[in-house]
Amino acid sequence: GDVDLDDGADLARATGYADSGSLLTTELSHVYQLSGFADPVYAEAFVTVHDYDIVLEILLINRTPNTLANLTVELSTMGDMKIVERPQPQTLGPLDQATIRASIKVSSTETGHIFGTIVYDDTSTMEKGYINLNDIHMDIMDYIRPATCTDEAFRSMWAEFEWENKVAISTSIPGLIEFLKHIVKSTNMCCLTPHDEEEKGSFLAANLYARSVFGEDALVNVSVEKKDDNDGKLAGYIRIRSKTQGIALSLVDRITTVQ
């Protein structure tokens, strides 16, 4: 009979992704569903990020009763990424499955996208099939590490770096310290400015610092105040400076999304 793979949980168990959750998080791995269960070929990618290298292990399941020949996953990228190993073509029998591999080199911290299409020949109908895949969105947080530096070094980099982007604070978080902690955690940065947890003031300023695995510095200055005339909501700006545009824009996107 036909294999019913509509149950995502069963599929996760079958492919071994269900019970190894703790392993996945430490290796910065993500699973992306690339096509739907109703498509002739079901595809999902197990993506591992290790510094400059991204490895894609793509599970392919032939959902048809026909043999599919010359089945190829054609990949392309957007951003500072280069495909160094392309997946090999496969022949998949009826309801058969295979795992193929692709490698991508990354050269800077910016949000990258991987796009793909599955192309195959159906040996029964003699027709060519195409499936457009969901794109894989690489997370900048995989490349950023908290770091420390002296006040002098921070000030000198701040003066030197030409890329500055500004994000207006718009948040539902009520407390100054709580907001700062949320931004620090969400951006994977290190707060260089000490703060008293019990601080009761209406204004807070802090410097945050991080480095990417590519050696890029990222500087952030948070300047936030609690305004009575703003229904007690927080207001202010988060300024981001870096030497390269990619990391600055990616941090802007990240802060805008999480605040």
Secondary-structure-based class equals: alpha+beta
Query: What is the total tally of β strands?
Result: 16
- The best one-word shape is elongated
- SSE succession: HHEEEEEEEEEEEHEHEEEEH
The CATH C-level class name of the largest domain = Mainly Beta
Distance between the termini: 50 Å
List the domain count as a whole number: 2
Radius of gyration: 23 Å
Q: Helical residue percent?
A: 10-25%
CATH level-four homologous superfamily name of the largest domain: Coatomer, gamma subunit, appendage domain
Strand content: 35-45%
Q: What is the helix tally?
A: 5
Describe the structure.
The chain is an alpha+beta fold and 259 residues long. It has two domains: 8-138, Coatomer, gamma subunit, appendage domain (Immunoglobulin-like, Sandwich); 144-258, 2-Layer Sandwich (TATA-Binding Protein), CATH 3.30.310. It contains five helices and 16 strands. Strands 11, 12, 13, 14, 15 and 16 form a six-stranded antiparallel beta sheet that branches. A five-stranded antiparallel beta sheet has the order 1-2-3-7-5. Strand 2 (41-50) and strand 3 form a beta hairpin. The termini are far apart. The model is unreliable at 1-26 (pLDDT under 50).
